[in-house]
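Reviewer 2 asked us to include a model.

Predict the structure of this chain.
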Amino acid sequence: MLADTPSSHMNSPVSTSQGIFPNSMIGNCEYPNSGASSSLSRPDADINDSDESNLFSVSWNQDYGCLAAGTSHGFRIYNCEPFKETFRRDLKSGGFKIVEMLFRSNILALVGAVANSNYPPNKVLIWDDHQSRCIGEFTFRSEVRGVKLRRDRIVVVLEHKIYVYNFMDLKLLHQIDTMANPRGLCCLSHHSNTFVLACPGRHKGQVRVEHFGLNVTKLINAHDSQIACFTLTMDGLLLATASEKGTLIRIFNTMDGSRLQEVRRGVDRAEINSIALSPNVQWLAASSDKGTVHIFNLRVRVFGEDSLIRPTAVQGPVLLHQNSSTALDPLISPNTGANPNSSLSFMRGVLPKYFSSEWSFAQFHLPENTKFIVAFGSQNTVLISGMDGSFYKCSFDQVNGGEMLQKEYVRFLKC
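Predicted model (structure tokens):
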């Protein structure tokens, strides 16, 4: 296999409208085939959804407040609450298969689609929309499968390797070898004082977790079959995983690799497309090709100096933020009745294993065989976006669960 030899270019300062990089230098790049046709242009006033762009990708930003859509004509950014298009950029040369936002700043990572004559799928562009210019560029010998951004790092995912770069000067900091990763699976923590990266390991069903700040690598044998989807909490202390079988979702302590909880989507095989953890780590949402979004009640609590939740009497025991695995031993809060185990759980150990898995607390039904991604909104709401160009906002009853209530539906792109 031909080895990837990444290259990057940068040489001039960036100015941003929101001060993400105040007084910093993160570079500039030359446009390939530079000229008017290769730059991203602001849309004309008469452009609307009647152009029927093909949708290549949808992704949330890091706080789930925005949705980025890669299309056959460029990209579009939407605010989620309320849902509305914030801006779009269109190309004559083709569209983007990957659009990754950096929170709500004007900085994005873009990877062109195969049909894009100016921006090929082996090149990553760091785009400053405030300046309407490319401020950084990475070129590889193989197709880019994914890009993830933090305020201080850029992570590029290839099929067998992951590269980690410093955002300020685009210098390569780390390289990680993975097993074949055509989905581009990778996720990051986003707290400023923790840098945790999760990616596929070298073996089937394995997740590799890098605690870069602690110089700790943890290999978690999460499933017997291939990993299909995973996500981290914002501080990176918890990991939720699903396999290609798609029946179980497991939650792990990333410091010691212990399994804290297991929930069950169903008994039939399914492709889990997305997993999301609520900011207070009380709820987990998952979407699959079966057309159902499931909400699960988590019995895991994380509390620390920078945690988004605070301990209360109803939350039970907590996990303390300390830099040792013994201090992070799993502590599971009592089952309060929400999302109970099977009523036959007193026979656990006699009955099949799935009777000890916890079933979903709330559900929402969608068209089958469409890829949907999920996120948590404000006030016990779930945000759902699909590759059919749809957006849903639903609410769930935090006490009784059951079928979720649809509060909003938008067809943002006519695919």
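DSSP finds no helices and 33 strands in the chain. The mean pLDDT is 78. We have added this to the supplementary material.
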